[in-house]
Amino acid sequence: MAKARATNDGRVRVTKRKSRKQAPKSMSGLLDVSVLEDVTDIAELTHRNSTESPLLRVPPEIRNRIWKHAVGGLEIHITGVGVLVSAQLSYGTRPIGSRGYLLKHPRVASHMHQVSRQAYFEVAPFIYTLNTFSFDYVGVMDRWIKNRAFGQMQFVTSINIPSQYYGLYIQGFRRTFRKKFPNIKRIGIGHYSVLVRRRMGETIEETKDRIVKQVHEREGDGVVVECPDSGTGRAGTRDWTVAFNRPHVVGWSMDIAMVKFGVRGSVGA
Q: Of the four, 15, 31, 37, 267, which is 20 to 30 A from 155 by CA?
């Protein structure tokens, strides 16, 4: 940003602030932990962490179990607060499969990756691979997907989709999930999506079977498609929201929705 100030001779001198140096990125759009801005200082710090930190001295297989326990097993619900076009994306969490009306749910250990570069490298992928992402409505899901780096999309394995998004998806107005998330293993269809698509004389189970078949026709049989009952596996509701005011930061930062869960506002598909 330029700043003007007067000099002794009455002229105006304009000085420009130096822009903040951006974190180095890899081809996938993720933070490149192999690049060290100050090789000497960072190398020494990295070595000291690996030899002196009680956590990082634990054997890798045990450390991975700790990471998974700390950041996995949750449904992370992305929601929008405010005007739809400029809504601030936020998130809330709950254990996968728990009832939607419970008042208290555990939160993701959102700062684990900030312990060190090594912790960042080990923890960040687990936040995507070990959790299920759900979305308040179609606009929120579109924006979250649009804000993902390619590398982040690679790690997503489980999603719950809102009813409106499912309608556009099944009519061909949204790409298949396998094209968005190459390693997707599970797609959840909300109970409301089932109810509004139930045909005359059709049982709920028959509607579910038809929806599962429709999704498999687009995605193939290698993806698990679930239609959970009301109260679990929420996909597209507004009953829980945690608002954050921290600005969006490029990279794997834990801003509003964890490791860029997306969330800028403050992550068409």
A: 37
Decide: helix, strand or coil at residue 199: coil
Range in 26-30, 88-92, 158-162, 200-204 the model is least confident about: 26-30
The number of CA neighbours under 13 Å toward the Cβ of 123 is: 26
Cβ-contact 137, 80 below 8 angstroms: yes
Count Cβ atoms within 10 A of the Cβ of residue 17 and give its class: 0-12 exposed, 13-18 middle, 19 or more buried: exposed
Which amino acid type is present at position 145? Answer: I
Of 252, 242, 264, 246, the closest CA to residue 94 belongs to 242
Q: At 93, which helix (H) or strand (E)?
A: strand 88-95
How many residues in the chain?
Answer: 269
- The strand pair at 74-81 and 132-135 is best described as parallel
How far is residue 128's CA from residue 59's CA, in Å, rounded to a whole number? 23
pLDDT in tens, 11-44: 655 555 555 555 555 655 665 555 555 555 666 7
The whole-angstrom distance between residue 174's C-alpha and the CA centroid of its chain comes to: 19
Amino acid, res. 203: T
